[in-house]
Specification:
Protein name: Sulfonate ABC transporter ATP-binding protein
Number of strands: 10
Shape: globular
Radius of gyration: 19 Å
Strand order of the largest sheet: 6-7-8-3-9-10
CATH architecture of one domain: 3-Layer(aba) Sandwich
CATH class of one domain: Alpha Beta
Largest sheet: 6 strands, mixed
Mean pLDDT: 83
Pfam family, one: ABC_tran
Strand content: 15-25%
Family: Belongs to the ABC transporter superfamily.
CATH topology of one domain: Rossmann fold
Order of helices and strands: EEEHEEEHHHEHEHEEHH
CATH superfamily of one domain: P-loop containing nucleotide triphosphate hydrolases
GO molecular function: ATP binding; ATP hydrolysis activity
Keywords: ATP-binding, Nucleotide-binding, Transport
Length: about 300
């Protein structure tokens, strides 16, 4: 691992217009992520974790401050930055291999190269033999593997993961955490993962970024100076986990909500800008194939 800042977030603030007032989701947040590092981000719901992730990935560019990738401003999505969401977001009418190939839709590779990349990533996430399966034929863990493969297929040098295992049962979650750790070690790419699960954050991360509630700020960054792969029963991991839990539990009400004219209601919560998959689904409610996706 090098000391070079691969992703640099400098004094970033993000505000949303809610009920005629300004809701501050992030307030003067700065974070450097080194090349090849695995950084995890934890905090209470609504603290701005996912907002910070979207800014780093370029899915949201309406902010104050600077967001850079390899020294260049992040002005939108890029093939160099992959993203995996909590829901796999697979197209139900496409097979596993064609869903994975969607990650190569705008990539400058030949058909042969795309076919090889898809096969490699499917093998990497343990789905060999399920290339022709449809999403409804997969378990939740298998579907999430397909989502991870799609995020990795164009060989990004940064992968952002937004609670990728949050909807899975404990056994499947633990298995996929181990597999993600192996993928990270093998591919040697930078990973940034948002999670509510402190155990997951400590098990996977080189550093754990602890966010305070709105307005979102970085409260503390805790290093996890333990070699990979890690033992879940390690007393050292338990000690770091307990330290992080203490920090989260001592959050006071003064950290809560920055001034707004009206309190946000569930109907007016800020939502993420829809990505291409969501937009395509809304534009295609009948389920007609939108992509040829030959591989």
């Amino acid at each position: 691992m090098t000391s070079k800042a691969h992703i640099r977030i400098g004094n970033v603030s993000r505000r949303f217009r809610v009920n005629g007032g300004d809701l501050t989701a992030l307030d003067q947040v700065s974070l450097d992520v080194r090349a090849g590092e695995f950084v995890t981000i934890v905090g209470a719901s609504g603290c701005g974790k996912s907002t910070l992730l979207r800014l780093g990935a370029g899915l949201d560019i309406d902010h104050d401050g600077t967001v850079e990738h390899d020294g260049k401003p992040v002005t939108g999505p890029s093939l160099d930055r992959g993203i995996v969401f909590q829901e796999p977001r697979l197209f139900p009418w496409l097979t596993v291999e064609r869903n994975v190939a969607l990650g190569l839709e705008n990539a400058p590779f030949s058909k042969v190269e795309k076919r090889e990349l898809v096969a490699k990533q499917i093998a990497l996430v343990g789905l060999t033999g399920f290339e022709k399966a449809y999403p409804h034929q997969l378990s939740g863990g298998m579907a999430q593997r397909a989502g991870i493969a799609r995020g990795l297929v164009n060989r990004p040098d940064v992968l952002f993961l937004d609670e990728p295992f949050g909807a899975l049962d404990a056994i499947t979650k633990a298995r996929l955490q181990g597999e993600l750790q192996e993928i990270w070690a093998k591919e040697q790419i930078t990973m940034v993962l948002v999670t509510h699960d402190v155990d997951e954050a400590v098990y996977l991360g080189d550093r754990v970024v602890i966010m305070s509630p709105r307005p979102g700020r970085i409260r503390e960054i805790v290093p996890v100076d333990l070699p990979h792969p890690r033992e879940r029963t390690s007393s050292q991991l338990a000690s770091i986990r307990n330290h992080i839990l203490e920090i989260l539990n001592t959050t006071t009400g003064s950290d809560q909500l920055k001034t707004v004219t009206k309190q946000p209601t569930p109907q007016t919560r800020p939502v993420a800008r829809p990505g291409p998959v969501h937009a395509a689904l809304r534009a295609n409610p009948g389920g007609r194939p939108l992509f040829s996706t030959e591989i």
